[in-house]
Design a protein that fits this description.
The protein has 232 residues and is α+β, with helices and mostly antiparallel strands. The protein folds into two domains: 49 residues; 151 residues, Glucose Permease (Domain IIA). 20% of the residues lie in helices and 33% in strands. A hairpin with a 5-residue loop joins strand 6 and strand 7. The longest helix is centred in the N-terminal third of the chain and has 21 residues.
Length: 232
C-alpha cells in the first residue's frame, strides 16, 4: 500500500535521508572488512527513518456515522485528561476538558473535532514542558481555535507543543468552514490536543482510551446546551 506523506514532513524526510546517507556511506567505506559495523549502522538508520516516515503519515479518513452533534477526536493518541475546568482564554466559563496525548509513534495531523465555522484562531508563545503535564495547557507553546457548530455551540480546540515538539502548524483561520474530515493543523513530534466542551456534554470515552483522529467519536453534544458566547 502506498504511504501518503503529509506535506509538513516532506523537507524533513529529504534532509534526513541525505544526512543518513552521509553517515552510512563513510561507515561502509571504512568498515568493509567488518560487515557487522556498517550493517548495524544501516539497520539503525533504516529503523529511525521509518519511524519518522510513520510520524509524518497523512491518512485520509472518513467518519462513518452521523456527524450531527458528534465530537470526533482531533488526534491519534491516548486520553490523558477528562475533567471540569474553567476556560479563561475565550469561552470564559466552566467546560469539560478532554485531552489526547500524542506520542512520537502517532500520526500528528490534527482534524477538526466538529463541523461548523471557525470563529477564532490565535497562537501563543510558551514553554516546552512535557505535554502530558496538566500545566502544559496554559504554559506551553500553543494555538487555540474555536469552531461554532451549526447549532450555535462553541467548541474550543487547543494544540499544545511538548518537550520534543518545537513547531505547531495551524491552518484554521476565522471564517473558514470546518469539517471533521479535514486537517486543521499539524504538530511536529510529541504533543497534545485539548478540547473544551459545554457542561452536560455526553462523554463517550474514558481516561487511557486510545483514539483515532477523524474517526473516534469522543463526545455527543446536547441540543440547546451551549457555552456562553461572550466574545461576539
Amino acid at each position: 500500500m502506498r504511504v501518503k506523506i503529509h506535506h509538513e514532513g516532506t523537507n524533513i524526510l529529504v534532509i534526513l535521508f541525505v544526512v543518513l546517507l552521509a553517515i552510512n556511506v563513510p561507515v561502509y567505506l571504512l568498515c568493509r572488512e567488518c560487515p557487522a559495523a556498517y550493517i548495524s549502522t544501516l539497520a539503525v538508520s533504516a529503523v529511525f527513518y521509518m519511524l519518522v516516515v510513520n510520524f509524518f503519515r497523512s491518512p485520509k479518513r472518513h467518519f462513518k456515522g452521523d456527524p450531527d452533534n458528534v465530537v470526533v477526536s482531533s488526534a491519534d493518541g491516548k486520553v490523558v485528561a477528562l475533567e471540569e475546568v474553567y476556560e479563561p482564554e475565550y469561552l470564559k466559563c466552566k467546560c469539560i476538558q478532554l485531552s489526547v496525548f500524542m506520542s512520537v509513534f502517532n500520526v500528528h495531523a490534527n482534524w477538526f473535532p466538529v463541523d461548523g465555522k471557525v470563529i477564532y484562531s490565535t497562537h501563543h508563545a510558551g514553554r516546552f514542558l512535557a505535554a502530558y503535564l496538566p500545566k502544559s495547557s496554559t504554559e506551553n507553546e500553543r494555538s487555540t481555535v474555536v469552531i461554532r457548530t451549526p447549532h450555535g455551540q462553541d467548541i474550543l480546540m487547543r494544540q499544545i507543543a511538548g518537550a520534543v515538539a518545537k513547531r505547531i502548524v495551524t491552518y484554521a483561520e476565522p471564517g473558514d468552514d470546518a469539517s471533521i474530515e479535514d486537517h486543521m493543523g499539524f504538530i511536529k513530534f510529541g504533543s497534545r490536543i485539548d478540547l473544551y466542551l459545554p457542561l452536560g456534554t455526553e462523554i463517550l470515552v474514558k481516561l487511557h482510551d486510545t483514539t483515532q483522529g477523524g474517526v473516534t467519536p469522543v463526545a455527543r453534544l446536547k441540543p440547546g446546551n451551549t457555552n456562553a458566547t461572550k466574545n461576539d
